[in-house]
């Protein structure tokens, strides 16, 4: 049976219907500590993401995997797999900051070595280029209606065998119709876009009850999704594992 393929539309016509149809040889390499305190080698396979504050929301320094893993796993399965390796999924806001850093061109790996521009371009091509095949990655946001209003739940962790959000709060003002938005970085502290545009660059599917977030691209376009079914899976849909960054990272790292 052929797998259903996620859709990124060419233009706004009929988008509600489209939406419904669907997300180095160093002998003593430096190490960094994971959330559980264990050490991890191969730090060159991670990218540093400096901590940031967005209004009342802030997060510490992180490292993010260069490559996606856990392809073809649904949202819950992906969280469970990340938990077993003491990693976690990026929130929407963290992911937007990650993309902004990549586009700045100033990117350092977990050893504190600046990435070559060709490698950065390769990562951006995987995420943002309008081309086939479809590529996607899960993000850590679950939308839930409470007393008639949507909440956003994120920073999920496995606690006593159950997936629980560390943060749950009312949805801030954001676009609540499917729209192209003004640019990738015109977002609120929850990472959701607030300003629409006629420019057809990045599309946003607005949050829906009991749905989760993801980011995807194909030849039709690039999109931030807030309506994916958490039970969905696809062969090119995965995650970039994130971890806390501690003091073991090379001191030459730049923020």
Protein described:
The protein has 4 helices and 15 strands. It is α+β, with helices and mostly antiparallel strands and 255 residues long. The chain has one domain (30-244). It has helices spanning 15-21, 75-84, 92-104, 117-128; strands at residues 32-33, 39-40, 46-49, 52-54, 57-59, 62-65, 135-146, 149-159, 162-170, 179-181, 202-205, 211-218, 221-228, 237-238, 242-244. It is globular and about 50 Å long. Strands 7, 8, 9, 10, 11, 12, 13 and 14 form an 8-stranded mixed sheet that branches. A 3-stranded antiparallel sheet has the order 3-6-15, covered by helices on one side. Strands 1-2 form a two-stranded antiparallel ribbon. The chain starts with 14 loop residues before the first helix and ends in an 11-residue tail after the last strand.
Overall domain count = 1
**Major beta sheet summary:** 8 strands, mixed
Helix and strand composition category: alpha+beta
Give the integer mean of the pLDDT values.
Answer: 83
Shape by Cα distribution: globular
Give the helix proportion (percent range): 10-25%
Total beta-strand segments: 15
How many alpha or pi helices? 4
Radius of gyration: 18 Å
| Strand-residue proportion | 25-35%
* Cα separation of the termini: 47 Å
Question: Which helices and strands, and how do they pair?
Answer:
Elements: H1 15-21, E1 32-33, E2 39-40, E3 46-49, E4 52-54, E5 57-59, E6 62-65, H2 75-84, H3 92-104, H4 117-128, E7 135-146, E8 149-159, E9 162-170, E10 179-181, E11 202-205, E12 211-218, E13 221-228, E14 237-238, E15 242-244
Parallel strand pairs: 7-14, 11-13
Antiparallel strand pairs: 1-2, 3-6, 4-5, 6-15, 7-8, 7-12, 8-9, 10-11, 12-13
């Amino acid at each position: 049976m052929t797998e259903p393929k996620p859709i990124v539309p060419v233009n706004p016509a009929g988008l509600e219907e489209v939406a419904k149809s669907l997300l180095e040889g160093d002998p003593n390499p430096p190490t960094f500590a994971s959330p559980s305190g264990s050490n991890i080698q191969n730090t060159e396979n991670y990218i540093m993401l400096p901590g940031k504050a967005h209004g009342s929301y802030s997060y510490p320094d992180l490292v993010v995997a260069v490559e996606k893993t856990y392809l073809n796993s649904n949202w819950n399965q992906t969280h469970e797999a990340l938990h077993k390796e003491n990693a976690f999924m990026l929130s929407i806001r963290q992911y937007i900051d990650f993309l902004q850093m990549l586009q700045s061109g100033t990117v350092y790996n977990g050893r504190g070595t600046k990435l070559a521009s060709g490698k950065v371009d390769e990562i951006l091509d995987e995420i943002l280029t309008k081309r086939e095949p479809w590529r996607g990655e899960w993000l850590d946001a679950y939308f839930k209606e409470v007393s008639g209003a949507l909440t956003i739940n994120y920073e999920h962790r496995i606690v006593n065998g159950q997936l629980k959000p560390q943060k749950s709060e009312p949805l801030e003002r954001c676009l609540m119709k499917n729209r192209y938005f003004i640019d990738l970085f015109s977002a609120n502290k929850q990472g959701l876009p607030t300003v629409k545009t006629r420019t057809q660059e990045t599309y946003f599917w607005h949050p829906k009850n009991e749905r989760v977030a993801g980011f995807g691209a194909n030849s039709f376009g690039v999109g931030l999704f807030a309506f994916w079914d958490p039970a969905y899976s696809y062969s090119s849909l995965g995650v970039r594992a994130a971890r806390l960054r501690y003091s073991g990272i090379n001191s030459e790292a730049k923020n």
